[in-house]
Amino acid sequence: MRPAWSVLVLTTWLGCAQGLAVALALVALGAFGGLSVAQGVAQLALLIVLLLGAGGLVASFLHLGRPERAWRAAAMWRTSWLSREVIALPAFLGVAALCWAALRWGGALSQLLAFVLLALAAVVLWVCTAMIYAGVRFIREWATPWTLVNFVLMGLASGFILAALLFAWQGLPARALVASALALTLAAALARTALFLRNARLQPAGSLATAIGVRSGAIRQISRGFTAGSFNLHEFTHGASAMCVAAVQLGFAVFGFGLPLALLGASAGAAQPTAWLLAAWLLHMAGLVLERWWFFAQVNHPQNRYYAAAH
Questions:
Q1: Average confidence score pLDDT of the chain
Q2: Protein fold of 5-201+231-307
Q3: Which of the residues 123, 156, 203, 296 has an alpha carbon 20 to 30 A from that of 92?
Q4: pLDDT tens digits, residue range 265-277?
């Protein structure tokens, strides 16, 4: 399929915002023992959450043919995961803004409740986003629980790396966050490998014979039935060479997981880990964009079995 750059930006930036929100919530709730976060750092991190989320939201409008009708996307919330995401995304940003306000004007209890809501909103948004793809049963590369697992783990990894970077930059103890980011990045790499191995074993469902209801095994398609281009060819075929797709796959393995893991390991023992963490986060985010491109490009939409068979 043809990857839309607006969707790549939306899912990678938003996933990082969700991961950062969860990291802040866990720190605020005392999940890291004695680790705490200063109010100024927490407010800065929440502003970054809002900026990343808003940037992803703006990017998503670029994918629409009629952006002025975007509000209608929420109308099918009873049956559509996309509609649910359209509702969950502003709700997540609203809760992040509520957390910022609670830190500035609220008491300790209101702050804790706000962070609990923030973590829950992040989880709900992950489910809605991942199920847009996992719920498409006829695209078997996506129709698996691994899709949700990968969305969550990659978002958590990028968010925790950014959280560790912010803590280190402000001179706060970041060792626990670095260790968590390292574990999450490794888990994301393993989960992505599991999904790749699972998809590599998939066999196409049906054949030309079953498509037209005949028993002959000697069917050969020689024409698409038209000579001009079409919407199907543009939207469901990325047009990149096999070498390009393989290079992107190698790129996200190296930049998304390999190098960030090495840099996170180096930062754990560094007296000044900020530069290591900044490099790890930037490379990881670049690798996630490549991964998300490959996530779309490697999918073989069923209609391509017809269009790709005759040139």
A1: 88
A2: Formate dehydrogenase/DMSO reductase fold (1.20.1630)
A3: 296
A4: 999 888 889 999 9
